[in-house]
């Protein structure tokens, strides 16, 4: 028993099966070969355009991820330098850009927290110095 084209699930439908269905329908209608060829060329061009847009979109996303990774690495280097850290932080790991970015995030978050804590300590120390200066001046 043959499966009716209408009963084929959308997830299992392929371009080739749709093209065969279209050919059958066109044959039943009586479309001319020249018209069929022209319509198939239009469909192929539309498919190419869709793929091209997807490739362009994916390429842009890849560039954005690579830039985020580079920015994160630069920020880590800047934070390590500013904090005077000597501890080594993970070098670029092998894997996809998403994997590398995921591996970078914990170290970056840790350094940001350390910087914030140091800024609070520095501010508290400045306040203590100001209080001592005020006491020395007799205020």
TrEMBL record:
Q: Which Pfam families match?
A: MAP65_ASE1
Which family, according to the similarity comment?
Belongs to the MAP65/ASE1 family.
The places in or outside the cell where this protein is found are: Cytoplasm, Cytoskeleton
One GO cellular component assignment for this chain's record is: cytoplasm
Q: Which key words are in the record? A: Cytoplasm, Cytoskeleton, Microtubule
Protein name (database record): Uncharacterized protein
Q: Which residues are the signal sequence here?
A: none
Q: Which InterPro entries match?
A: MAP65_Ase1_PRC1 (IPR007145)
Which BP terms in the Gene Ontology apply to this protein? microtubule cytoskeleton organization
Organism this protein belongs to: Linum trigynum
Major location (coarse): cytoplasm
Q: What GO molecular function annotations does the UniProt record carry, in alphabetical order?
A: microtubule binding
Q: Which domain of life is it from?
A: Eukaryota
